[in-house]
Write a structure and sequence with these properties.
The complex is a heterodimer. Chain A is of the alpha+beta class. Chain A is built from 18 helices and 30 strands. The two termini of chain A are 52 Å apart. Classes of the chains: A alpha+beta, B alpha+beta. At the A-B interface, helix 18 of A face strand 11 and helix 11 of B.
Chain lengths: 801, 289
Amino acid sequence: MTSLMQAAETTSWNGIGTSARRPDGLLKVTGRFSYSSDLWVEGAVFAVTVRSPHAAARIVSVDVSRALALPGVRAVLTHEDVPGAKTYGMKLADQPVLAVDQVRYHGEPVALVAADDPQTARRAADLVHVEYAPYEPVTDPEAALLPGARPVLGSDNLVRHVKIRHGDLVAARELAEVVVSGDYEVGMQDQAFLGPESGLAIPSEDGGVELYVSSQWLHKDLEQLAPCLGLPPDKVRLTLAGVGGAFGGREDLSVQAHACMLALRLGRPVRMVYSREESFFGHVHRHPARMHFEHGATRDGKLVYVRARLLLDGGAYTSTSPVVIANACYFAAGAYEVPHAQIDGLAVYTNNPPCGAMRGFGAVQSAYGVESNLDRLARELAMDPLELRMRNAMRTGTVLPTGQEVDGPAPVRELLASLQERPLPAEATGERDLRTLPGGVANTTHGEGLRRGIGYAVGVKAIGYSGGVDDVSTACVTLEVAGGRPVVSVHTAAAECGQGVTTVQAQIAGTELGVTRVVVVPADTRVGDAGSASASRMTWMSSGAVQGACRLVARDVLARAARVSGRPATVLALVHDGVVDSLTGDRVCSIVDLLGDDRIEHVHEYHHRPTQGIDPETGQGDAHIAFAFAAHRAVVEVDVELGLVKVVELATAQDVGKAMNPLAVEGQIEGGSAQGLGLALMEELVVDDSGRLRNPSFTDYLIPTMLDVPPMPISLFELPHPDSPYGLNGVGEPPTLSSTPAIVNAVRAATGLDLPRAPVRPEHLTGTMPAGNRAATPAALPAVTPPPGTAPGGQPTRARH
Amino acid sequence: MVFLHATSLADAVAALSAHPGAVPIAGGTDVMVEVNFDRRRPAALLDLTRVPELSRWWVEDGRVRLGAGIPYARVIAELGDRLPGLAMAARTVGSPQIRNRGTVGGNLGAASPAGDSHPPLLAAGAEVELVSNRGRRRVPVCEFYTGVKRNVLAPDELIEAVWVDSVAGPQQFSKIGTRNAMVISVAAFALALHPERQQVGTGIGSAAPTPRRAREAEELLAGELDAAGLWESRGPLPATLAEEFGSRVCAAAAPIDDVRGSAAYRVHSLRVMARRTLTWAWNDYRKAA
């Protein structure tokens, strides 16, 4: 540990299941928490990135001479200065550290400038002269697949085609008495974390580098970073600096390689902190989606089949697109029992901004499609949409379109029923506070044009890594005596992104070892991999690791106590900083007496149960370790004349297995629901036809404010999961799945409009979207793959070169 | 960058005379964004935060003299009764932090078509008082804006104050944003009824290169109210008149499609806002009888 980082310490006993206070909470709300952007050491220089103004261009020349000549400038680096591998990536190393001979998206890094202060660095960046020869960017994901489309990267623009074939579509179409289909679109959402990408790289005496950085997954950073620096992994040491939110946007590298290569080059510490504008160019976004859904059902509302075609725009580089599209496809049937399914998912390359991980990871898009089409089916059946959902609700034992039987709790019907039972918010009467109305204090309505709507949606997603990945999480737990008291130290590489994994680790150590004082030391790569703070897996996997390591420590302590006391270790337990006989309740000894100057340390590596990859042609396979479910009921008021929406209430029902920290769980549910509200009504990165990002600022990329987020009552289910530590389940992503379609369904109910696209804009509600705007009219999608055997060679359009 | 402080209005005027083109800065909510984003690198900044004359308001001959340095938070707290339209607009500006810092003078200096102060100042028939070494002049606010983010200020002139009639009739302000708070206007409309002179004032925001009045709508409405004797009778407003008023307001707009909204939506929303604000203002006028 260095003086740059502080350990998180808890000194009052808060076991699992309590709403323990987060150690960083007070610091954060009082502005004293040190984020990665706050790090500073003597002698540090500041570095900035020179980025491409074009979405697609050949680099003709780069002239750094004027920039280098500016007083205070220490270095200007281009791809020629990258010490090792020139490219990196989460799944494929296809993204240049610095653009080599061409740029593939607006904002791609081309050069780096380090100077004595930020202003000088920025001015020098303006003096780096890059001559570009722009060419026509590929910006339409559908056109990217057409024969003759220019390949953005590699030989064609297809990242991955995921196919799921389940049951017998031909028979299913015979059985279906009612068929509805629809085209749906989701815009490009941003993680919109408040802490910009930032870090501090310090060259070390052994020729290596120390990097303090905000990240979601230190070891994956290391794996990608070390080859680019041309260093062995042990010469590159990462420490997690204060993370100001992540939501998937910190999985891919941002400042990591740039800061380190400058530090190594200059032999000086290098700081990088993106501006808000640069941040919008500095991380991957949620994939925009164009989707076609077709549902067949019996007249009494039993789902027979689903056909879906999902097209995700992956942008210019691979990032995590191959797994995002898989996840979108896995859950394209929604949280329902659907006997027959044919799902095709395509992720494509374009010259749009790269897309990758964001909370929900593809399942957000497919949940929007399936939940939208379910409401359409309910209309066609003249059935209550909630009743339709309950009638088809997935349950334990349901076989997924991937052929896997759901073997954990699957309380879909129960979640929906709890929402149904919740009283509706009262309809307002009389003169109303403007803040309760669409438009708020902007005074657009005093009640005119208002219509109320109610919408439901439910979502399902796998927790943890799917598809045969042997996921691992490591913890090192140490028990020793300090200052006359026993202290447990927990050391992992788990990224605290605000979700509260630090608090949970302390709660587990306290619970397992009965010790009051727990120190969670800063996460770094000196300990084994903890995996990513993603896939709603971190609490599950870290809990497994910390619990396992604690139990090894406890075993040693109790063995000592057994020797000392002569009682069998099996009757002894660790409670209140001591050892008690659990049969008699007698206090046997204190940990302090037992340990003296010794320390007991154990490392545990936790693995979840094994899974399989899916078959590439049929998508069949037991790919998932667990499933999590959440459902929402949204109540909205729409000013139908002005197209403005006020969400009146957004109720969630979610099964969390075991609420390790109920307050933190509620925080996750509220945050996820609010993020889904943003996608439903306002959050979209607008990319124009030339591939340029039009709104890289919080002035024009709008996220919900206090007056947009309504009361969010929560019904928490705690059905213990059979395979997880303490029976917990992943919590972070599920509320993001169903929030968006519940709200849009409510707006549809209020207005009677189809509203195929999220976010819903006032223009969609008032018929004022300009013609030709692709945001208004989803492109007609080619027919989905015909059922096997009906059309020889009937494959979705794809370009092969 | 030269940083000039002034501690009196005379100081400020002298400084600006010595450094014409220096950018005056009060709350900094606009200027500093431009500077921080490197969109603008002025040769000199003139700090006005310590000029006492700019942070006072008083009433003189039935008009409010509003110092240019008064932040929105004070407009809301102190002037809601005298300048209701401006106060309503001020409530919609940014966040509480921005309302504590941002000033009406700064809004005029920036002259953005989306500035929230402009429509109510236009509707109220305000005058902008400018001062320089060469003297003072008052410019009707409808002549103040000369283009996108441009105004009549000479390089050595400072916005000293705004003169607005203390309210005699109902005023309304309405603004569209795509979220329910803290949003830049997609379109805005302000209306002031001036029963004492049987006139109507309007102001349109974010729907033309500059903030502007809808003069034909004003004339139509004033004329029809006059012809039907409604100013005196305070009878109900004919629905057709409100509709026609909305149409004339739309006709005065010249909006564009941009990332915040479509031109068609801006026109549509102006029609609705014009009709609704007129209905509310007329109801207030009738109730006030």
